[in-house]
Amino acid sequence: MAVWSAENATKAYLTTLKMGLKDKEPNVAEFVSALAAGNSAQLLVVACAGAANPPALALVAAAHQTVGRVVCILPGIEELQLSKKILGYDECHVEFVVGEAQNLLLSHYAKADFVLIDCNLENHEGILRAVQAGRKRNEAVVLGYNAFSRGSWRYSGSKTQLLPIGEGLLVTRIAPKAFGRRSHWVVKVDKCTGEELVLRVRFPQGKGIKA
């Protein structure tokens, strides 16, 4: 993720307001679009329990500012057909996928840097773990909406905030995995000056320096 862009966040927020989503899902859509755009998200993925809804559509507004991709993971064909009707013209800006979100985020969308999860999904915590497992080089922001209706992932080991927005919004920022590196101290003697130099040599975990 790039540095925070206030300009992208503002433009996405205003675009979402123009979509007329506020009455359906108070404040959630605007917050989602501003956060995604402000973080300059490039691969935005939403996992829905039913058909695509206002928070999912908010990602489209964000992607307009970041020139990113929006992927909507749905549980079945019926939800897919309904989602296309709901999104209308904006359907062309969304890549729809029918399948298991947890598996897809581990395989096809492991590089997603902004993930939106409907907490009404039975395995919403498993989906979060899939995002955590997929972090290698890029960090990710994960939002869980409808958080008040279910037990949350607040104690998942990641830094999470529960916001009283809409039906509850969980905000989690996941850092990339820190691959452990071992180090070895080496003493070298400068042949010209006779001065001793102490150097720290780092090498990948599991490998050593042969004597």
Summary keywords:
single chain, 211 residues, alpha/beta, 7-stranded mixed sheet, 6 helices, disordered C terminus
Structure description:
With 211 residues, the chain is an alpha/beta fold. It contains six helices and nine strands. It has helices at 6-18, 28-38, 54-66, 77-87, 101-106, 124-133, and strands at residues 43-47, 69-74, 95-98, 114-118, 140-145, 159-163, 169-174, 181-189, 196-204. The strands form two sheets. Strands 3-2-1-4-5-7-6 form a seven-stranded mixed β-sheet, sandwiched between helices. Strands 8-9 form a two-stranded antiparallel sheet. Strand 6 (159-163) and strand 7 (169-174) form a beta hairpin. Helix 1 packs across helix 3. The protein is elongated and about 80 Å long. It starts with 5 loop residues before the first helix and ends in a 7-residue tail after the last strand. The relative contact order is 0.12. The model is unreliable at 22-26 and 206-211 (pLDDT under 50).
Task: Spell out the blueprint of helices and strands.
Elements: H1 6-18, H2 28-38, E1 43-47, H3 54-66, E2 69-74, H4 77-87, E3 95-98, H5 101-106, E4 114-118, H6 124-133, E5 140-145, E6 159-163, E7 169-174, E8 181-189, E9 196-204
Parallel strand pairs: 1-2, 1-4, 2-3, 4-5
Antiparallel strand pairs: 5-7, 6-7, 8-9
Helix pairs in contact: 1-2, 1-3, 2-3
